[in-house]
Amino acid sequence: MPLYRVTLQRPLNRKLKPREGRRRWKEKDGAIASLGQLCLRSLAENMKTLWVKDYAENYMDQYNFRHIMGPFSELPGELVEELTSLLCSRRELSRAALHLLLVPQLRGLNLGSCPALVTPSLCSLVAARCQSLSSLDVSGAQQLSAQVQCDLLGYLPSLRSLSLAGTQCDSRVVRAVALSCPALRHLDLSRCPLLAPAGLLPLGGALASSSSSPTAPLSSLLALDIGLGPKEGDPAAAAAYILLSLPGLERVALEGVGEACGLLLRREGRETDAFASREGVCSLGDLWRRRVEQGVGKREGAALGREEKEDEDGFWGTEEVGSDDEGMRGEWARGLDTGLRRWAGQLKRLAVRFPGPLEELRPALCCVGPSLVSLTLEGVRTSPHTPLVELLHTCPKLRTLLIHCEPPLAPLQEEEEEEEEEENVLDGSCLLQLCSLSLHFSRDQRQLRPAPSWRALRGALWRLLAGSPLLEDVCLVAVPCPLDSVFHRVLQTTRNLPARNPPSAATLEGSRPLARLHSLNLAHGDVTGMTAKRLFAACERMRSLDLTGCWHVKARDIKDIQHAATRRPQGLTVKWT
Fold first, then answer.
1. pTM higher than the cut 0.85
2. Which of 21, 238, 464, 574 is deepest in the core (most CB within 10 A)?
3. Angle at 328 between CA 322 and CA 334, to 5 degrees
4. The CATH fold of domain 339-409+427-496+506-575
5. In the chain, where the domains are located
6. What is the DSSP string of 488-513?
7. Residue 342: which of 311, 286, 304 has the closest Cα?
């Protein structure tokens, strides 16, 4: 068994040539390389001229070592993984080098960029030496038969991420994954021509049995462009079974997943009867009832906003809501409220398209709002009385907020009351963790400027902008209210500081609204050039400013802003027409 313990002796006064020094110290983008990167590069160069050469000439083809003692067996697994990635990026990973780097402490092995090195003999070495792998990528490895893949997976019970994309994977390999990898969370089987859609069913357990087997906790499944020849309705049927049998899925890329959602939504289980009979699995209705017994399917059915009832074939029927648009919309808002209750305290990201008043979503937001970090609302309608701030108070942990909405149809007929004078001290914050805010109002392209139909929005915007100290990106497009007064109040606002004497620099910065702002988009907004210049002067980190369609902004204002930007190291990108 080879034993490498070579110490390189170099004179301390050796000088690097100018070109060599620049190549080692700087990255391609001009950034200075870290000390760890420099050490790995030196190690990679020594591998090629010393250890790899010795191993290739004296040991590789004569012996089959279960383990190799040497410098790489003593390195932490993270460094071995990084060194492997470095050699791959340089196209310097040879078969001998890979043999040396297959050490027991390795946790991640990514060979997707060099599939020619992945052979059956290499897989036997991986199975013998790297049984603690948690991540494996052998995508594109055409030399691996399905049997070789099955044998390899039997030795890797700790896998959490696996990519077999573009290989000879078939249904046997999927069964091996289901049996041998109980901790798997990410699986990529894309571009596997030997794998039919029905071959994915083992991932959901023994569907035909009376009690389903435990399934892997998959949260990500990618299986596009699989199978050859005519498949008829198989992709949609297989996708429907996968969606019902793997409740932990968060990311899915399957052929026919859209049709599968339609089948589940319409409760049309009969369309999959031929598929179930041919594949020897239970009917889709039986699988649904099994999910109901587990306490999941019943809530999913409620989320569809329909009343469940059994029909003669054992599948569920549907009771359609009324055809009246308003009634349907209200019923849908109540399908949504009930359906989201099962995710209370767990849901992190929510995107909803709802063509109704924004305030009708309040019950649903109250259910899941406390745990949300990202919220996207599209198509909602607003009015002069929409309680925007009150709605957002139900989502205190938001980091990203995106609302595409319709502006109020017309301003109030009666004369608006003047805004109450409020102190410029913000006692309570609106969204303490909000980093990205986007409000897009639809507008008529034929109109130069949006109608000021929601003047009361100014108070809500002030609270959002001044009460969210971590804001980095702000996008307010075609806002139907004047913005000068909003930003005037924001820039004059201070936050109550904690009792600390003296306050830290970070605390002082946190007392100023928009102190961290990087990007500001006020396209088609009622804002003047003077306000734009004040904003740029106050936001020292600003790098992007969009004033497209701002009719009050003049060319001289843009020149003044661009001239001031020359004195900042990060520069500024300005858009204006």
1. no
2. 238
3. 120
4. 3.80.10
5. 1-8+16-104, 339-409+427-496+506-575
6. HHHHH-EEPPPS-SSPPHHHHHHTST
7. 304
